[in-house]
Specification:
The chain is an alpha+beta fold and 383 residues long. Among the domains are: 154 residues, NADH Oxidase (3-Layer(aba) Sandwich); 107 residues, no CATH class. It is 40% helix and 10% strand. The chain has a four-stranded antiparallel beta sheet with strand order 1-2-7-4, sandwiched between helices. Strands 3-10 form a two-stranded parallel ribbon. The protein is elongated and about 75 Å long.
Length: 383
């Protein structure tokens, strides 16, 4: 490689400094390898069916196998971390079952828009400093950011399959800029998990087949966000009040003692988002749902999946306490226009009242129900 294709080493440091000025917590370079073992791990994940209903992973599998399948001219990557750490114990709300527990990353604004804007600002600055072609990626593109980050030395994929950094913990988003030239080759980060298995033990649904192996079909983040239909009945109790995402495995990681709270106000917990009552969320119509979660990543899953989650959580909460507001909110779900919500409300009602009262309610609704899946919920048939 000649001097024209490899910029001066001090330019890489200048780029890092500009990235920090824009708010990125870390920025590391990696030269792209010709052969990448991460591709084989991804293929094995999909072939095992661990991706569940995320058919887009199958459809884009070949493109995901190597960054050059996204852009043939790519020679290197700049991988950047943007911190979104919580300012308090993220699992504290699990002790308040009638309150919605939302994953830390979704308590502020949608990070996709924020990170993409920052990446574009950095990319615009870079092309004023050197002649190169580049492309910007956030995690909506079929690019494997976490293996790239490990290749660049930003962190390593822990046993929970998330990226972990000795300096940042694991509360950070990733962004990538691909270049048509190499700035620095980078030093891959070693695995520092050791014998620790705290993240695996913390999972409420036993979603880890083993260390470094996640079955997304059992993961609450997948179920609450990606999966659109009725959940397997066996996993509904385990969700507790986690209505959007799950942070248990991240929060359990001891490397998070080095994590910092989010400095960007747009990623900090919105006012009141740590005090949202399930019974209040359950009555949101579509317009209200969109208004409450405007600029939030929660909005993208839609009202039906969100209120399905809320109904399951209310069922779990009602089983612990006889709260008339919860039962009223569950009852309201029984007549919702959307069958996904109605079906979840049936299950929730079964948890909230005794068998005799449930049968009395079922007599009113079962025969008039037109959706076969909801009928099966009334009948307690989950197979």
């Amino acid at each position: 490689m000649n001097a024209q294709t490899r910029p001066a080493p001090d330019l890489a440091e200048t780029i890092r400094q500009e990235a920090h000025r824009l708010g990125f917590a870390a920025a590391r370079f990696a030269a792209l390898p010709d052969v990448w073992d991460a591709a084989d791990r991804l293929t094995a994940f999909v072939e095992a069916g661990y991706h569940g209903d995320m058919t887009w992973m199958e459809e884009t599998l070949e493109r995901r196998r190597h960054p050059r399948n996204m852009w043939a001219g790519a020679q290197s990557a700049l991988v950047l971390a943007y911190n979104y750490g919580p300012d308090s114990n993220p699992l504290e709300l699990l002790d308040h079952p009638e309150t919605a527990n939302i994953s830390v990353y979704a308590r502020g604004d949608d990070y996709h828009d924020l990170i993409k804007k920052k990446l574009k600002q950095l990319a615009t600055w870079i092309v004023t400093q050197t002649s190169c072609e580049l492309k910007v990626f956030v995690d909506t593109a079929p690019l494997m950011e976490k293996p790239l980050a490990q290749l660049a030395g930003l962190g390593w994929q822990g046993k929970h399959t998330n990226l972990v950094s000795r300096e940042l913990g694991s509360w950070f988003f990733l962004g990538v800029i691909l270049f048509d030239r190499v700035f620095e080759t980078g030093q891959p980060e070693a695995d520092h998990c050791g014998s620790c298995s705290a993240c695996l033990s913390a999972c409420p649904t036993d979603a880890f087949v083993g260390p470094y192996q996640l079955d997304a079909r059992r993961c609450l983040s997948y179920l609450t966000i990606e999966f659109k239909g009725p959940w397997p009945e066996s996993l509904r109790h385990a969700m507790g009040n986690r209505i959007y995402g799950c942070d248990d495995c991240l929060a359990a990681c001891p490397w998070n003692k080095f994590a910092s709270a989010a400095a960007d106000i747009k990623l900090q917990t919105r006012q009141g988002f740590d005090k949202l009552l399930l019974s209040d969320l359950a009555v949101l119509n579509d317009a209200a749902f969109r208004a409450v979660f405007s600029k939030s990543p929660i909005k993208r899953i839609g009202r039906a999946a969100f209120l399905r989650n809320v109904q399951y959580a209310m069922g779990n909460a009602a089983k612990l306490s006889e709260n008339p507001e919860l039962i009223a909110a569950i009852r309201g779900g029984l007549t919702d226009p959307d069958p996904v919500i109605r079906g979840a409300a049936v299950w929730a009602m079964r948890q909230a009242v005794d068998d005799k009262e449930f049968q009395q309610i079922a007599e009113r609704f079962h025969n008039s129900e037109v959706d076969t899946t909801v009928k099966r919920e009334w009948e307690g048939r989950y197979d």
